[in-house]
């Protein structure tokens, strides 16, 4: 990324308010812009209709509801994403076997490395 490239826009799909706040504060320090956030599948799908998104961080479990419809929508739009979960890769359906997974709880370096892995090499 050169200095003239815009910061990648990250969409946060997470139902834990404190984690959303943490990511909204952390992502800009890592060179990203927060493109918005949603705490439910319904709200995330609605926001994706109009949001300009380059990457997404998607919690697997949104208040007891799986976020897989959001991941499907992101894939259909060609938007790279990573799942966050406390359950690991084994909690994902087969169609997401190749998806990036970030284990909760995660540290700053973990999210930084995971997001960097989603971006194509410059």
From TrEMBL:
Keyword Ion transport attributed: no
This protein's UniProt keywords: Phosphoprotein
Sequence ranges assigned to domain Response regulatory in this UniProt record: 9-119
Residues with the 4-aspartylphosphate modification: 59
KW Phosphoprotein (keyword) present: yes
Ranges annotated as spanning the membrane: none
InterPro entries, sorted: Bact_response_regulator (IPR050595), CheY-like_superfamily (IPR011006), Sig_transdc_resp-reg_receiver (IPR001789)
UniProt xrefs under SMART domains: REC
Domain of life, per lineage: Bacteria
Protein name, as recorded: Response regulator
Classification of source organism: Bacteria, Pseudomonadati, Pseudomonadota, Gammaproteobacteria, Lysobacterales
